[in-house]
């Protein structure tokens, strides 16, 4: 028998139908305006699950205007009347009152689930149901682990993405991996993954946005991660949920998780080390501000005739190099207190600093372009890009150039 769960209001659960065998696997699918995909997806999941595991599919719908939740309800009735006795798939729906945070939708689905194993996936066919058997196989063989369908390991393929989307995804993924110390995990921002429910029993999920896996990995550091390749295909029907609010939530989540990881790794000197960290961050950004002044003054002096009468582009280039050099020296001496001026060490540090600053500039330019082309106002796009580039510069230089612990 198939049960339908209606959550109105949230956290009040009504079950319809007699008791059934407890499923081993619960597949959570959050939806919003996925009427063009959801029924085909349910059929495909049923086909690919086969007899691998007693499975329930929980569709968590955020009151979709296109009637996604109602379509699933009608499908459940039809499926219940036509299914054979040998079918081991159960389907349930959770109707939420309005569109809210995706992480909360997933958590609500997990809270209502009956399976010992949880699989999270999207409804737009970017996560192919054909990959589910491989995920289940790995999950059943490995206790206390997370199985991640990864877009960025050998054997994976990404189809249908524009260059803009690829740059944005790679940039956000790289920033998360470095700032949150993800080690060898290639795709911590995947939305297609599975785990044992008991592994998250003591985790308090409190970030906003779309990337619940990122929070799980940060707050459950000892959990084993196994990544498997798959073919990611961009949605064909429906609209992407990507907007500037999502970007803001992502940046906020990164900072919150960074602070969580740092705090979790500190000892009894928590307060002292936290002040030290914030002090270094403040110094780094102060030096950055001074670099803007150096850049401006040098460029003006070299182009106005006060020191020289160079072409304005030459003056600007020299001004940039001067500001990067002054930033490097001040950060070395003042921010990070590094007094090693041996030639080999100094040249290596300077080149690393130059490369990372250039990378930060590329992030800023790319981010501005992508956000503005996505119809986000330039003022907001510029602010977000500066924040992301500045944070990445600080974290990368802290870890790579000056060899300090990210969390410390």
Write up this protein.
The chain has 408 residues and is of the alpha/beta class. The chain folds into 2 domains: 6-238, Spore Coat Polysaccharide Biosynthesis Protein SpsA, Chain A (Alpha-Beta Complex); 266-401, no CATH class. It has helices at residues 38-49, 68-82, 102-112, 132-141, 163-179, 212-219, 244-264, 270-304, 312-335, 343-373, 378-401; strands spanning 6-7, 13-14, 25-31, 55-61, 89-95, 117-120, 145-150, 157-159, 193-196, 224-229, 231-233. The chain has a 7-stranded mixed beta sheet with strand order 5-4-3-6-9-7-10. Helix 5 (163-179) crosses helix 10 and helix 8 (270-304) runs antiparallel to helix 9 (312-335). It is elongated, with a radius of gyration of 25 Å.
N-C termini distance: 54 Å
Major beta-sheet overview: 7 strands, mixed
Strand content: 5-15%
- Are there runs of 5+ residues with pLDDT below 50, and where? 1-19
Order of helices and strands: EEEHEHEHEHEEHEHEEHHHHH
What is the CATH topology descriptor of the largest domain? Spore Coat Polysaccharide Biosynthesis Protein SpsA, Chain A
- Count of discrete domains: 2
The number of helical elements comes to 11
Shape: elongated
Indicate the percent of residues in helices. 40-55%
